[in-house]
């Protein structure tokens, strides 16, 4: 009888149609009653937006005793709960049972799948669904084991099992954490019946609601949910996504080549459908691919699970990424990319015959990616082989998590490297000033096989957003990796923006096998340094440790130290859920955080910031708004990146009057409130447009021509473009350029550039050239006194590429050795052939080349390169060579474009250095030439020079946890509007271009300790840069006017305290490790401009006097009065020579130095006059000398002079003329070199030998 009944039930059930699931109960926060909330929060408006918890119980239809739960976070209700716009309650039950809801005759195993909801703005919400089965008997249900056991006891036989679902909805993609939570819940639900289940789910939802989301950074949260420890991971930094899934899943389902194919489909924004028989895998694999794109973002429809009723979604005409069960594979027949996760197939359903070509990922990027994926350890079992077996579930969990975390980091890094390798060279075709991308040129410079890929990708929304981020100079994961793996050549390109040509090293590497090419990193020394033959400049600084940089990029990436993660255990939450329980939970939470804060050393500011953030949130939930504001204010000194501006603004707006008055009485909170509210008023509109470069269609005046040339990427420098305009408008009455001339010039330039890429010198020639040399121009084949061949021009020399059986190398002349260049004619039969004649030092024979029609152009070219080389040598400035090269190539393009009798005259307008050499033969004085080592230009990437406001040199040191280039010494250079450019002082190449510290002028920079540089600004803020991460994430806001100086007190060689001063006369003493204010002192007078520290005394220079105060009590101990009767003048600055009991000072607008004896301040100071000096601008002490920067005139032109004054003799030892504008900044490099920076007319840094 029993079996018969069973059989009958099975048959009957098999023929039942699927049932319609419905939402039975909804639980939303908060979970305390409204009365309780009001009781505690009287007078606190912040919580008034919250609504009470409720449970929605539908009238049950008599037959369909089916249920689904939707718990936690957000859900709708007709009563008093607002429906989140991205959660559709009608579609939700279908997604909880995507394969349909069927009553079964047997209980099935619990299972979990994942959902992603996207609203119209593209914001995503995530759901995790747990399905379990309840037995149904006589119209009532009970959970798995219990009901079945009772039915056996009573002799009743269960007829069927009904699937139920609990869905947790969260704003964050905590897939693994919520899966673990639901797994624990399912275990707890087993013994209970219907109503008890609901109470348990409500408690479960309430508990999840009380768990905060951790802020970005190195802190994960842990809480206990029997029997598991649940980890809520944080995102790595504010721009990173949360990763709480196994990122290697697609690498288990697909071969690396297939992963690349799928990435191509996503990057080219195809219509993509994933298929699997496992609902969970659909979402996880799709979500992994979304994370693989980071920092690019998919901007189209994203529905990783389509239920049976939603299949018509795949008819959508736009790009999308969706997921379906494999059962529906044949039903989807549109023009789609079909990806079967279960068997790794990628196919294309096309109504038309021809097959869709999925272009290949660029070959080199693909090759590197495949190698790296093959090197990953994707199987946990292999990791376990050598370990002892775990006897504890917690240990198994911890082991697996640690392995997964490391693997996730490796996969992330591999994918990011792929994205960087694909798009790295986009930046070379951007013009930042006019926000232009030259897509046509970018495509032309891609390898032929890579072009189909780029053609498709360049048209996508995703790429357009990527371009915006690059043009906004966003420092995201892409920019950071690009910067850290940039070759020395790329860094030099930042300093010397010259036309693109193949270096000899790259030409040679074309011959290297593909294997070696992939593993090799190009390291290129600074161009022309060997050439200029600097005797022992800073490039060979023997006190700096030499660090090899020959590591391959891949090796560096794989062995990057993994960032240490700390976990914080959230206190237990006790039930029943009364207000008192929640209150005691928050109190415990607050106390645990306070304890963690008090025991943490101040050096660990990253972790401190996370604890302050969480404690601020807890205080907010407790209704203690001032306490919350105070904790958020601490973030400014620990980690500004996680400061919740919008939340703080909302707190301020809802502060009751009494609390607002209390806040105003606390200076630090008052400053915080005014800053946050001011920020709201000055929200900047970011210019987000991106233009594609197009050739002009109308005539251009000068200004429009400048803009067009800059957009084209040919040249940035405005003065050079003005000369080019003159060249192209030679002989025209109306100075304007027609579109045809512009097009001819542009096309000739680009064709020449493309031809140069094809130049392939034989190995016999390559071995004679330096690896960083490029061939910039080749003549036609001509007859010369050295044989027949082509004349080749590099940035260093001319040589003859001889023709015949074995092409060979014959040197003609290095530019520095040229003595004379002539354009002449040589008789040949009845003809006079135009000939170029070059006379070289140390060579008797003269080089003649019968260049015929090319002769005049080559004459201009060689003379310009010769003059540029001489200028570069005299001024120790390799940039002159790059400028001469640019002039030469512009001449070439002008002649090629104009093709007329006046073209040579037009090209001569670009002979800038040759003209300078002939018009103003500027001799560099001997002393200057001997002392000057090198010049660099921090404004090289800008369109015009910028003044250098402050310079700082920081010595190198090697920390094992750091990247190698962080171990090098650095030169920090503050330009206008808060910009800071950082140079690697071992090669003088730009390391970082550039930081932005507010928008005001920067006034001072100091290395307070090895890991932090403090930068003072006129906006009254001190910005703190972490020298390891090279990022600014802290600031000190205690000054009320311009920060003018920062000095560090060292005890036994280690920094103990820092002092900062501001223009209003305030001096603050800081604890360097905690960044807390130790003491504050207000000077009796305003206009405090600089400070010095000696023997526990602080010397403070104001415009009217120099005050000396003790550092402990700030007691006034000495005063040097302004001694000049001239009312207008005021103290500019001073230097101490304590061993001589002397103070040296200067007045603004004066060209004299004054020396006081500190033992007898009443006597008149000694005066030292500086010859030919208009005005002293700055000064520093170097050993026993005072280096004084000034502005002056020389031969009627503005000049920046440096006077080196001996402290002993009180006389000028040297006068150095190294700048074409006033000297604005001076700094010393280990007392061996002095660096000077000039004003905005020149904007260069000179490096001088001290002593």
Automatic annotation (TrEMBL):
The keyword RNA-binding does not apply. Its main location: cytoplasm. Residues 47-477 form the UDENN domain. It holds the Pfam family TPR_DENND3. One of its GO terms (biological process) is regulation of Rab protein signal transduction. Residues 48-60 have a biased composition (Basic residues). Keywords: Cytoplasm, Guanine-nucleotide releasing factor, Phosphoprotein, Repeat, WD repeat. PANTHER family: DENN DOMAIN-CONTAINING PROTEIN 3, DENN DOMAIN-CONTAINING PROTEIN 4. Forms oligomers. Interacts with 6 of the 7 known isoforms of 14-3-3 proteins. This is DENN domain-containing protein 3. It comes from Catharus ustulatus.
